[in-house]
Structure formats: structure tokens, C-alpha cells
Specification:
mainly alpha, 12 helices
Length: about 280
């Protein structure tokens, strides 16, 4: 036993030596190279001579500067304000994409479908969010095409001003949001703001329409999620009552009901039904 322990100790020491001798040797070589007079002397390169370690270490590194200078011309002030506004819009782009489009309803319904199946991480979050993004672009494509044709292209061509382009770009998004927003939710925020009742859709302010659209989307998504849950809940109840009648109370019903729920979802072509119903729910 003692001989075996001694052999194991020698093997461990040999492996530890193999792991550390090469990095230590490399560090010593690098320190010697940095302290060598050939590196700091930088002799003139001879014709035909190759680049050595000194030439590599003496390569100058670029310096990056970021600063703010005083505006010397009147034209520089509007340009700076435009850049600041652009950066603000870019920072708010994720919130705009989530709250002002169909993304909220889609991602909540897909999450409900995954929870109803009982599969915790299948499909994963990346797949759910990616599918929701593609479906959002599909639904919002008419509004995006209208923004491109009526606002972006004329503005880049210099035919309209920036304010006119902003108004034309907001119109398709506003029409889409008004179609999905319930009158009850819109009336709630109009009354909370203390403003007058708008006479036509064009009079609805954005600060009133955005939260009304958000809570309307949440309510619609939860309604669809409840309808998705019902058939899978029936399967869970049947499996649980069957296991209890057989005396298998210690066996988790989820382990038995999960294959049946997946089989039902496949047989009825569940993704086709869920996505189709979800797409048709947008007015």
C-alpha cells in the first residue's frame, strides 16, 4: 500500500510539473525579451533582414479620442440636436418594437402554449422570441411598407421636411394600434388624462393611445392563452384521477400526462392552429 501511495504521489507531482513548467518558461522568456537592450535600442533595419521581436514590440498603437467641441457655426447646433435625438430613438428602439407592435401578444401566447404543454424549456426562449419577431415583421409589413413609401423615401429625397416625415410615419402605426385597442381601455386613459373626447381617430394623442394599446394586447393575449390551456388541463385532470384510482398517488401526474399532451398537440397540428388563430386575431 505504501509503494502504491508513493507512486501516486510521484505521478501527481510529475503532472503538476508538466502543467506549470511551460507557462513559467514562457513568462521568463517574455521578461527577458522586454528587458533586453535590443528591444529598446531599435537599431536600423538592414536590407534583407527579417523583423525580430524588437520590431514587433515597437509597433505604435493608435490613440482613440472621444470629445465634445464648441459649435462654431449656427448649422452645427441643429445637427447636434438631430444626432442626440437619433441616439435617443435608437436606445428606445427595443421598447418601441415590443410595446407598439404585435410582439407583445405573440410572445405571451407562445409562452402560454409552452406552459400548457408542460415542457419548461422546449421550445427554448431564443426560439420563442425569434418566432415572435418574424411573426411581428409579417403582421407589421403593411405598416412598414407604408412608412417606407410615404415617409422615409420622400424624406431622403428632400421632398418633405423632418416634421412631415414623422407625422406620415406615425399614421400607419397609429391606425394599427387603434384597430387593436378596445374602446373601454382608450376611454380609461382619456378620462385619466382629463382631456376632451376625440372626435376622430386623428385626434387621439400618442401618450393616451400607447398605454391603452398595451393593456388591450395583454388582455387579448391572456384570453387566447386561457383557450389554449383548457384541453391540456383536461388531460392533466384525467391522468391525475386515473393515477389516484389506481393507487399511484406518489407518481407525479406530469410525467404521465406530458407524452399525451405532446401527442395531442402533434395530432391536431398544434403550431398551425395556434399561429393561424393568433394571426387571424389581429384586425
Amino acid at each position: 500500500m505504501k509503494d502504491k501511495r508513493e507512486r501516486n504521489k510521484r505521478r501527481f507531482r510529475a503532472r503538476l510539473y508538466d502543467c506549470f513548467w511551460l507557462p513559467a518558461l514562457a513568462a521568463l522568456v517574455l521578461m527577458f525579451a522586454l528587458q533586453s537592450p535590443f528591444v529598446h535600442a531599435q537599431p536600423a533595419a538592414q536590407p534583407g533582414a527579417g523583423s525580430g521581436l524588437g520590431d514587433i514590440l515597437s509597433i505604435p498603437l493608435p490613440r482613440i479620442e472621444v470629445g465634445i467641441r464648441e459649435a462654431r457655426n449656427p448649422e452645427d447646433v441643429p445637427l447636434a440636436l438631430q444626432i442626440l435625438a437619433l441616439l435617443t430613438v435608437l436606445s428606445l428602439a427595443p421598447a418601441i418594437l415590443i410595446m407598439l407592435t404585435s410582439f407583445t401578444r405573440i410572445v405571451i401566447v407562445l409562452s402560454f402554449a409552452r406552459s400548457a404543454l408542460g415542457s419548461q424549456n422546449v421550445p427554448p426562449n431564443q426560439v420563442i422570441i425569434g418566432l415572435a419577431l418574424f411573426l411581428t415583421f409579417f403582421i407589421m409589413s403593411p405598416a412598414f411598407n407604408s412608412i417606407n413609401d410615404q415617409a422615409l423615401k420622400p424624406y431622403l429625397a428632400g421632398q418633405i421636411t423632418q416634421e412631415e416625415a414623422g407625422a406620415l410615419a406615425w399614421a400607419p402605426i397609429r391606425d394599427f394600434m387603434l384597430r387593436q385597442t378596445r374602446e373601454k381601455d382608450l376611454a380609461l386613459f382619456i378620462s385619466l388624462s382629463g382631456g376632451e373626447r376625440p372626435r376622430d381617430p386623428g385626434d387621439v394623442q400618442a401618450v393616451t393611445l400607447m398605454p391603452a394599446f398595451a393593456i388591450s394586447e395583454l388582455k387579448t393575449a391572456f384570453q387566447i392563452g386561457f383557450l389554449i390551456y383548457v384541453p391540456f388541463l383536461v388531460i392533466d385532470m384525467v391522468v391525475a384521477s386515473t393515477l389516484m384510482s389506481m393507487g399511484m398517488m406518489m407518481l407525479p401526474p406530469v410525467m404521465i400526462s406530458l407524452p399525451f399532451k405532446i401527442l395531442l398537440f402533434i395530432m391536431v397540428d398544434g403550431w398551425n392552429l395556434v399561429i393561424g388563430s393568433l394571426m387571424r386575431s389581429f384586425r
